[in-house]
Amino acid sequence: MNQSEKIVHPISIKYELETNAELGEGKLQFYVGNQDICSYKKNNKIESYSWNLFCVVTWLCENIEYIIGYDPFPLPVSGDNIQTLIEEADKFESDDLVEEYLWYNAKSIWIFKHNWFSCREGSILPQVYFRRVENNIEIYWDNDFWEESGIVFQVPRGSALVDRKVFKEIITNFVNSFLEEVSASTSDKKQMERIENLNRQLALNED
């Protein structure tokens, strides 16, 4: 299916912070259409993603410029979606060890900026990629990684396109809401500096 043939889906983010817990701890739901792609089943029980949400918020603040801006896949492979691009890149082989290292290093750096899995810190966070495609954001997720651990996501894999401006607005509103809430819950100097730094990073990407 070509990108132009995909349905542009609505997205929404819901979160709830825990009381009497470490600052930022809570539950997160990320809906694509009406499906929470962060929800999973473990030990026959359906769970919401639960962790210190600073990890996701920090990653979003640090990488939203690459997601909504111009940061194309760095390798000369063809594909009209993230899955195909990565699969084609993984076919590369070279007798030159330096060339092979540079190839896979370029891929790893790009993935680090476009897949929030790198910020999971031991939590059960789904593998979700984000990249700009014209005036949309492609969202792609694949959670084969978790199956060996007996964790089955309710929506194991899928992809969608979201209008770029809508995506940015929803991410910005979520981050701003989270930072306002944690700011009102602490007077710790280091935490306040952390929150202010994230606010500044997010503000750099405002139109």
TrEMBL record:
Return the protein name. Uncharacterized protein
**Mind giving the lineage of the organism this protein is from?**
Bacteria, Bacillati, Bacillota, Bacilli, Bacillales
